[in-house]
Each structure stands twice: as structure tokens, then as C-alpha cells.
Specification:
The chain is an alpha/beta fold and 249 residues long. It has 11 helices and 8 strands. 53% of the residues lie in helices and 10% in strands. Helix 7 links the parallel strand 6 and strand 7. The protein binds adenosine-5'-triphosphate. The site of adenosine-5'-triphosphate has 17 residues, from helix 2 and helix 8.
Length: 249
């Protein structure tokens, strides 16, 4: 169906269509649609905008990625369907690797996602995840990772994550950045930095911030990271939702 531009929920319906196309193409799982539904409900409450707290969290996240030795961006079926070109652009801007990591993993789906990212400009060597050779301490398919990618990373961006893997990565001593519209999720609480925003807004914001902040000295970057408090930021995100519906947002 073609959604008319004049439709009040145009953007939101466009996102749904991209995900449905992702399912048809074998990129996104059906369960990914359900996860999206939870995110969409929170996006409605947030007002489908980047809040101040989300913007500040994005800035801290970019500082952390720029200061990292081995940053990795983890990509699942929803991210690949929604922001394929943008995730490649972000990886190049900050000098990070991309690794495909799926909860509902099949080799065919990993290959399809890798092909989709290559069709959006990634080179063969830029995409990890097709041949995992290491594992994380969790008991499902998301444990499969690459030695030279997520396993060795010091900072991992895991958009739309589940709490278990976020916890596993943190327990391995890694800094974890997540993008999650639900400020109450286990992931949001476990991550080092949570960006409470939609990936379709957060990743482009991060690209812009990375361009502005590239070249900042190490001590300035770590100062930005150290000033960020995830608990406080999540509390701010909840207060922004409340004030939005009290007519103060
Ligand atoms: P947890 O285990 O952390 O409590 P969960 O069980 O809710 O999380 P999933 O079912 O995997 O985890 O859901 C994925 C999360 O992704 C949800 O919290 C949802 O709000 C979020 N989400 C879905 N779509 C988007 C999106 N486009 N942008 C950002 N976040 C999203």
C-alpha cells in the first residue's frame, strides 16, 4: 500500500512498511515485528521526536565510540531493514566494525542481511558475523560472535537489544551502548549508555555528532563520557514522557 504523505502517521506507517518488506526479503524475523510494536508504543508516548535526554545520551555514546580502541556496531534484522545505509555511514565515520548478530539466527538470514548491507555500499570485509568463531556466555544463538569483532570489542553498540546479551557483554567488561525506545527495559537499565530514541532518528543524529566531534582530544571525549549518568538519563527520559502528556513537553 502507498501511504499518502498527508497521513498524520505517515512516518510511522513508512517504518512499518520497511519492516514488513524486511520480513518478505528474509532480513527481519516475524518476532522482530512484535519487538517493533513495543518500540512503536513507546515512540508514541515520547512524541516521535528526539528528546533532550536522548540527544545528550547520543553525544556521550559518540564520544565513547570515538575514544574506543575496538568499537563494533552490532546489527540485527530490524536495524538492517530500517537503517542499512546509515549504519554503514556511522561505522565509517567512527572507524568501527559491523557485525551481524541475530536472536533468531539462521545462516540464510545472516547471508541475506550481509548481502543487503553490501547492496547499500558495504564492502565484503566490512561485515562480520557470517562465520562466528567465538561465543558469549549466554545460551541462545546470540552467543555466536566473531573473535575479531564483538568478542574483542571494548565498546559495542547494540541497538534494539535483549537484556540477556546486554548483561553478558557488560559482564565481559565491555562498555555497551544501546538504542531502546523503552526506558524501562532490562537492556536500558543494564547498558552503560542508553539512547531512548528510535533508531531511525538516533543513527542519523550520531552520524552528525560524530562528524562534529571527530578530532576532539581524548581527554575531552572521556570527560563527556564520564559526565553521563545512565540512571539519571533514564529518569530524565521518563520525566520527558510524563511532561509531554501533561502538556508541558
Ligand atoms: P529487555 O529484555 O531488555 O527487557 P525486551 O524483552 O522488551 O527487552 P525485545 O522484545 O527484544 O526486548 O524488544 C526490543 C526492544 O527494542 C524493545 O524494548 C523496544 O522498545 C525496542 N525497539 C523496537 N523498535 C525500536 C526502534 N525502531 N528503535 C528503538 N528501539 C526499538
Amino acid at each position: 500500500m502507498t501511504v499518502p504523505l498527508s497521513h498524520p502517521r505517515y512516518q510511522s506507517l513508512q517504518i512499518r512498511e520497511r519492516l514488513v518488506a524486511g520480513v518478505r526479503a528474509g532480513i527481519t524475523s516475524q518476532e522482530g515485528l512484535i519487538a517493533h510494536g513495543r518500540g512503536e508504543a513507546f515512540d508514541y508516548l515520547i512524541g516521535e521526536r528526539t528528546t533532550d535526554s536522548a540527544f545528550h545520551a547520543s553525544r556521550a555514546a559518540v564520544a565513547m565510540l570515538l575514544a574506543a580502541e575496538r568499537p563494533v556496531l552490532s546489527v540485527n534484522g530490524n536495524v538492517a531493514a530500517l537503517v542499512p545505509g546509515e549504519i554503514i555511514e556511522l561505522s565509517r565515520t567512527i572507524g568501527a566494525q559491523i557485525e551481524i548478530n541475530l536472536f533468531y539466527r539462521t545462516d540464510a538470514r545472516v547471508r541475506t542481511i550481509a548481502g543487503h548491507l553490501r547492496a547499500h555500499g558495504a564492502s565484503a570485509s566490512e561485515i562480520l558475523g557470517e562465520h562466528p568463531d567465538a561465543s558469549l556466555p549466554i545460551d541462545h544463538a546470540r552467543s555466536l560472535v566473531c573473535k575479531g569483532g564483538i568478542h574483542a570489542a571494548d565498546v559495542v553498540l547494540v541497538p534494539l537489544e535483549d537484556g540477556d546479551r546486554c548483561q553478558a557483554l557488560a559482564s565481559m567488561g565491555k562498555s555497551v551502548i544501546t538504542i531502546d525506545l523503552n526506558p524501562l527495559s532490562r537492556t536500558a537499565e543494564t547498558a552503560t549508555i542508553t539512547i531512548v530514541d528510535n533508531v531511525v532518528r538516533a543513527i542519523p543524529n550520531m552520524i552528525r555528532l560524530a562528524r562534529q566531534m571527530d578530532g576532539l582530544p581524548e581527554d575531552r571525549l572521556s570527560d563527556i563520557v564520564l559526565r553521563h549518568d545512565n540512571r539519571e538519563a533514564l529518569q530524565d527520559a521518563i520525566e520527558e514522557i510524563v511532561s509531554q502528556w501533561n502538556g508541558q513537553g
